[in-house]
């Protein structure tokens, strides 16, 4: 057997041993909330253009099936776009598949892929659409039942016959039962 094959086997064994030693949040139900900074990337949403402002919010709950997978539902508000033409605002509900990868003691990387139902209001009108969303994040476990979560999520808005991206950067608290 060659030296490189031995090194590969030792590296795989060490990675598996390290992954099994990483504590994870308890499996089961969890809830959380976060506060966020929105970043509207649309140049013009139904006659409204300007700068992102306001505060984004999200309340969520889910079920963690194992250390690597959860389903999560949420209600969110994406702050607003303020400037010429007034304000544009969006809020809605979402369902996400959440991949979780514990990578160090008490740390977990998150990846999300989901769908959202969004109501966008701008220029005195409103529009409702179903859109894709995705995100990345990291979670630090304070205990077996409480964690701090930081996330970036992208909502692909489709309102008033226009497509635009809205990013949301958030920090929040996650509690499992």
From TrEMBL:
Keyword Transmembrane helix carried by entry: no
Pfam family, one: OMP_b-brl
Gene3D superfamilies (alphabetical): 2.40.160.20
UniProt keywords, alphabetically: Signal
Cell compartment(s), UniProt: Cell outer membrane
Secretion signal span: 1-26
Positions of the Outer membrane protein beta-barrel domain: 13-177
Coiled coil: none
Protein name per UniProt: Porin family protein
Record organism: Aquincola tertiaricarbonis
Lineage of source species: Bacteria, Pseudomonadati, Pseudomonadota, Betaproteobacteria, Burkholderiales
